[in-house]
Amino acid sequence: MNEEHSQEDAVTVTGLRYAFDRTGTAVDGLDLTVRSGEVFGLLGPNGAGKTTAIRCVTTLLPVPAGMVRVFGHDVTTDRMAVRRLLGYVPQQLSADGGLTGRENVALFARVFDVPRRERADRVAQALQAVGLAEAADRMASTYSGGMVRRLELAQALVSAPRLLILDEPTIGLDPIARTGVWDHIMAIRAASGMTVLVTTHYMDEADQYCDRVALMHQGRVRALGTPRGLTDDLRARLGGDATPTLEDVFRDVAGSGLDDQGKGGEFRDVRRTRRTASRVG
Ligand SMILES: Nc1ncnc2c1ncn2[C@@H]1O[C@H](COP(=O)(O)OP(=O)(O)O)[C@@H](O)[C@H]1O
Ligand SMILES: [Mg+2]
């Protein structure tokens, strides 16, 4: 990696649009820059377009050239280079309950071309980094929800990506498991200096762990900044002794549309996640 590259932004998204069909546009003119080394949160209620945007960045959805770059590589014209640079934990379950933790991670090591001689060590290191060294040789079907999520984190880490992309890493987990997942993400990031792009609809997590956040609603970024900067701005506008949270900032920029969309969606998503979890467990 040369000097020029290390200064480069991790992700640049310019005017990204994505429509699944003629009736709806999931991402509608998205502009976004993730700086190298930061933890960047893409926040928004269910249906905001977070997963669609993430899948464009990971090369899983086709986009016109020039809209999305990862460390300077265009996701459309330089797809394999982009794939080598990133680790991805999808929103939906990606671990196989019929394999052990170690076998699951080894599978990803093979798929991502980790050199054969290094594989066993790298798999063990990834499992260690997420606190699964002890449980590594148990079937994933015996893992708790939080352990499954940490296993998926190990899968994404085994290729030593420069950019780790996590889509709702803590959805459907209890508060203790959520903290466990975040503690591991932050420790790995501190040790490796990797860039983290994470989506979540839990505003409190974003407030606590993200350097900068983008608030996304109906396919677009409505506000962007540090959690502190965004809440301070709203406090200044409200005056008095208001102590707004990120959620209040969101309500302020998204208006009333947020309530209807957020709640129903959240329950649907949690149910879906639990169904998937019980299939594994
Ligand atoms: N495979 C799909 N086919 C059709 N519409 C989709 C598909 N995936 C997502 N959508 C729609 O695109 C919009 C954005 O969804 P998504 O990107 O999953 O949002 P989020 O991740 O923020 O919850 C929603 O209106 C959703 O219904
Ligand atoms: Mg999503």
TrEMBL record:
**Annotated spans, Disordered:** 260-281
Xref: PROSITE patterns: ABC_TRANSPORTER_2 (PS50893)
| Annotated ABC transporter domain residues | 11-243
Can you tell which superkingdom this protein's organism belongs to?
Answer: Bacteria
Q: Does the keyword Transmembrane helix apply?
A: no
Q: Give the compositionally biased regions (Basic residues).
A: 271-281
Among InterPro entries, the record links this protein to: AAA+_ATPase, ABC_transporter-like_ATP-bd, P-loop_NTPase
Q: Where is the composition biased (Basic and acidic residues)?
A: 260-270
Q: Name one GO molecular function term.
A: ATP hydrolysis activity
Which keywords does this chain's UniProt record carry? ATP-binding, Nucleotide-binding
User: Can you say what this protein is called?
Assistant: ABC transporter ATP-binding protein
Species this protein is from: [Actinomadura] parvosata subsp. kistnae
